[in-house]
Write a structure and sequence with these properties.
Layout: E1 2-6, H1 10-21, E2 25-30, H2 34-44, E3 47-48, H3 54-57, E4 63-66, H4 74-82, E5 87-89, H5 97-110, E6 114-116, H6 124-135, E7 141-151, H7 174-177, H8 179-190, E8 193-201, E9 213-220, E10 225-231, E11 233-245, E12 248-254, E13 260-267, E14 274-280, H9 286-303, H10 311-330, E15 334-335
Helix pairs in contact: 1-9, 4-5, 5-10, 8-10
Length: about 325
């Protein structure tokens, strides 16, 4: 497939490498950072596009990857969707519900085909955990949890200018930008949430909207309780996700914030735990993590497979992030 890139930061390289690994090619790229764009174009031997060239080049692509900061999406998204070209959009889809509604309207107006980049949903270790839950062997959900801690962007006040995440003009904070993963993964295991109570904290005074720590207690519509804890300001890292059901339990373990090392499960009729080893490291092999979701999108485009994380999922997750921030700001439990 032929792919056009809009946004050529660090994650853009991983997207492009995934495309090439699948047998595709990058036919052009655009970024406001001309130095980064030139580096990207050199690696992938593609055209360096100016903004006013995008409308002419987008129709030549089989799909477009959009990985600009989430506050800079609407214009590009309309260019792609109005040309009736499928769109891969990085998460979060936006930072306001108003922008999310505009994206929904575009999707409907142009009959768009959009996948949202919740890449962790497609990683083999989580796929295994999801299969265990959906098979029914663990029973109905009782308690789900996700605890993810480590040194994120801006940790120790360092490297504040190296990412859009810590740019005061672009930052949206962990609850919108990163906890979106937790919402996506956990709701895929237990269904939609009914209530949420959250507390968030910022450790970078110069960027007060950039929350770096969160703790949430949630109740799912089916009665299960859910807890989320995360930090971007911890020098010690861990990643644990779990499902406790009426017939058994499963846990995904990782050495650091985004590592998926092992899935362990045990049902009531098993004498010992069973373990599946993956050693799936986002820190060491970000390209492969991104590869899995591109492989799924290719299958959707070529064979009509249903997209697992469509735009509607991005909208749902953004609403949960907004509810969590409202809960923290007002000190209330929010009914969803």
């Amino acid at each position: 497939m032929k792919v056009l890139m809009i946004g050529t930061g660090d994650i853009g390289f991983s997207h492009a490498r995934a495309v090439v690994r699948l047998g595709g090619s990058i036919i052009g790229a655009y970024d406001v950072n001309k130095v980064g764009l030139a580096k990207f174009a050199k690696e992938f031997d593609c055209a360096q596009l100016e903004y006013d060239q995008l409308k002419d080049h987008i129709p030549n692509a089989d799909y477009v990857v959009l990985c600009t900061p989430p506050t800079k999406r609407l214009d590009y998204a309309e260019m792609v969707l109005s040309a009736h070209v499928p769109l891969y959009m990085e998460k979060p889809i936006a930072t306001t519900l108003e922008d999310a509604e505009k994206l929904e309207a575009m999707e409907q107006k142009y009959g768009g085909k959009i996948i949202v980049g919740f890449a962790h949903r497609y990683r083999p270790a989580f796929v295994k955990m999801h299969e265990l839950v959906s098979s029914g062997v663990l029973g109905e959900p009782v308690h789900l949890y996700s605890h993810r801690y480590g040194p994120g962007f801006g940790y120790g006040q360092r490297s504040l200018s190296e990412s859009w995440r810590t740019d005061p003009k672009l930052a949206c904070g962990m609850t919108i930008e990163s906890i979106s993963h937790e919402f996506n993964l956990l709701t895929s295991l237990c269904g939609d949430f009914a209530t949420i109570a959250a507390n968030v904290n910022c450790t970078i005074p110069s960027v007060p909207q950039y929350d770096t720590n969160t703790s949430m207690v949630i109740r799912a519509k089916n009665g299960a309780i859910v807890s989320i804890g995360a930090s971007w300001s911890s020098g010690v890292g861990v990643n644990i996700k779990g499902y406790i059901g009426t017939k058994g339990a499963a846990m995904l373990k990782g050495r650091n914030m985004f590592e998926f090392d092992e899935v362990v499960y045990k049902t009531l009729d098993m004498e010992t735990e069973e373990s599946f080893i993956y050693n799936d490291s986002y820190a060491l092999d970000q390209d492969t993590v991104v590869y899995h979701i591109h492989k799924h999108f290719w299958d959707c485009l070529e064979n009509g497979t249903e997209i697992i994380t469509p735009l509607a999922e991005g909208v749902k997750v953004l609403k949960l992030s907004m509810a969590a921030l409202k809960s923290s700001e007002e000190g209330i439990e929010v009914k969803l």
